[in-house]
Design a protein that fits this description.
Layout: H1 15-18, H2 22-35, E1 41-43, H3 46-53, H4 61-73, E2 77-82, E3 85-90, H5 93-96, E4 113-114, E5 117-120, E6 127-130, E7 137-138, H6 146-150, E8 159-161, E9 185-187, H7 198-206, H8 215-231, H9 236-252, H10 267-274, H11 292-295
Antiparallel strand pairs: 1-3, 2-3, 4-7, 5-6, 8-9
Helix pairs in contact: 7-8, 7-9, 8-9, 9-10
Length: 296
């Protein structure tokens, strides 16, 4: 596993980051630089995380657990479970990481996520790449094949994963700085297609072309869906129909320029939270006015 990571200087002007405690900031840097593999993935094990980032510090596990949950709620981390193993994916990994090489992860990716790999083949004569010409991260599907999605990755059964250089460390450069056992890692079979979070399931019913709630919207969207789910007695289908009413109304709304609101806009989520679809308004303010940043 490579150990050089990119930390953008912009993070020190990021409103979310500057509001974190000092412990939260150090933890975040540690997750990126120490815990995550080349695909931005790590085990959801708070004891392991502490031992890797704060091996000699007297820090309560509950403090770190609360911060991890804060990062997750804020859409910075994605928690998921496959094959009985709890895992974490750093949501914006491929937005900021620009490595020359990236080995395979020992852990399966969350549903809808694209890994980017580039490493030397065992004989060193060939460079193996996977999705290296793509952005990586969460996949955007424009046309969804229901049958394909239903069977997505359900046939994985103890596939052998090797990093391409024979040393088993996942970095593909042959220096053995990972686990060094030289043995292929088995990926446990997964019986799930997508996140098991009810909010994500409801989201997919509202917006079938989107596999999961985008990380940037999770903090505001999940509470809205959770409240609607409780209001509908736990009925996910009924909740999805309710949410789709707001989403469809949003997509049929036109702005002052005559163009329809973008399906990726977030204003409909606020409508849902308020329980009201505002009347059409052609002015620059009033009940039907939606700020530009909510439209696009």
């Amino acid at each position: 596993m490579a150990t050089r990571r990119m930390i953008s200087a912009d993070i020190f002007e990021d409103e979310y980051f500057i509001e974190l405690s000092m412990l939260g900031r150090v933890l975040w840097f540690g997750l990126v630089a120490r815990c995550a593999d080349d695909q931005g993935r790590l085990q959801d094990n708070i004891r392991l995380i502490k031992s890797q980032i704060f091996p000699a510090d007297d820090i309560e596990l509950i403090q770190l657990e609360e911060l991890i949950n804060k990062f997750t709620k804020g859409g910075k981390l994605i928690k998921y479970k496959i094959g009985g193993k709890n895992l974490i994916q750093i949501a914006n990994w491929w937005k900021y990481q620009t490595p020359m090489w990236a080995g395979k992860s020992k852990f399966p990716a969350p549903a809808g996520w694209i890994d980017r790999e580039k490493y030397h083949a065992p004989n060193g004569a060939k460079i193996v790449t996977l999705n290296w010409d793509k952005k990586g991260g969460y996949q955007v599907i424009t046309q969804l094949d229901t049958n394909q999605v239903t069977n997505y990755d359900t046939n994985i059964d103890s596939k052998h994963i090797d990093d391409g250089d024979g040393d088993g460390d996942g970095d593909g450069d042959g220096d053995g700085d990972g686990d060094g056992d030289g043995e292929a890692t088995k990926t446990p079979a997964t019986s799930q297609t997508f996140s098991t979070d009810p909010a994500d399931r409801i989201w997919r019913k509202i917006k079938p072309a989107s596999l999961v709630i985008p990380p940037t919207l999770r903090e505001t969207t999940i509470p809205v869906i959770d409240l609607a789910l409780k209001r509908n007695g736990g009925d996910e289908d009924k909740t999805a129909v309710e949410g789709k009413t707001y989403f469809d109304a949003w997509c049929k709304r036109r702005g002052k320029d005559g163009k329809y609101y973008s399906p990726s806009g977030r204003g409909w989520i606020d409508w849902w939270a308020q329980g009201e679809i505002p009347a059409q308004h052609d002015g620059n303010s009033g009940p039907g006015f939606v700020p530009t940043e909510y439209i696009t």
